[in-house]
Amino acid sequence: MNFSHDVFFNTRSVRKYTDQDIPIETVDEIIKMAGQAPSGLNKQPWLYTIVKNIELKEKIKKECEKIEIDYYKRIKPKLKEAFLNMNLNIKKKFLTEAPYLVCVFAKKDTPYFVESTWLSIAWFILAANSFGLSTLTYTPERMGFLNSLLDISSEYLPQVILPLGFGEKKGGKQRKATEDIIRYYE
Ligand SMILES: Cc1cc2nc3c(=O)[nH]c(=O)nc-3n(C[C@H](O)[C@H](O)[C@H](O)COP(=O)(O)O)c2cc1C
């Protein structure tokens, strides 16, 4: 497979998916690629769970929307406005639309477990996009319910829910100019 330079420039968050399915082998391959990320002491503290079952996806959506309702009640008006400007609201249809939800956990007993797991998540996002697929870094305020729903021990801390599927990358989000994110010391 070709891992193109373009993948860094074309990767965008997708919040609307088609019902086109993905072979499980592709999902496995993406996770295999994500599992090649570096980690503190090479402990590889990440755990990837793949949810295909529609009843489970509906339960996850229901829990997430409950958490979002509670969150939106508490946030400052300015933040709420910023979310609305981004077309974000409490509805999370992508959680049942996407053929897969990949819920990622980090094992707590290792050094840099959060940093390492997020490196792996970044690799997952790039790997998925390199297959022409889309995903979204979805991080509801509380994710502890995933441990009981997916029967994952409390040694693992949920980090993110990544829907995985085909969806349009609308592309519009600009990035800072390169000169604005670099300082040189010569
Ligand atoms: C750590 C992190 C958490 C995020 N959490 C959410 C989230 O909970 N919901 C959401 O819709 N997008 C979330 N995003 C996606 C960002 O909003 C998105 O990456 C950013 O606006 C840039 O847009 P783009 O990815 O389409 O270029 C998150 C991204 C990161 C890196």
Strand count = 4
Name of the CATH architecture? 3-Layer(aba) Sandwich
CATH class membership = Alpha Beta
CATH fold descriptor: NADH Oxidase
Structural class: alpha+beta
Shape: globular
User: Which ligands are bound?
Assistant: flavin mononucleotide
What portion of residues is helical?
A: 25-40%
Q: What this model shows, in words?
A:
The protein is of the alpha+beta class. The protein has one domain (13-168): NADH Oxidase. It has helices at residues 7-10, 24-34, 54-74, 77-85, 94-97, 113-130, 145-149; strands at 46-51, 100-107, 134-135, 156-165. The longest helix is centred in the middle third of the chain and has 21 residues, at 54-74. It is globular. Bound molecules: flavin mononucleotide (FMN). Flavin mononucleotide binds next to loops.
Main attributes?
7 helices, binds flavin mononucleotide, four-stranded antiparallel sheet, alpha+beta, NADH Oxidase
How do the strands and helices of this protein lay out in sequence?
Elements: H1 7-10, H2 24-34, E1 46-51, H3 54-74, H4 77-85, H5 94-97, E2 100-107, H6 113-130, E3 134-135, H7 145-149, E4 156-165
This protein binds flavin mononucleotide.
Gist of the model:
By secondary structure, the protein is of the alpha+beta class.
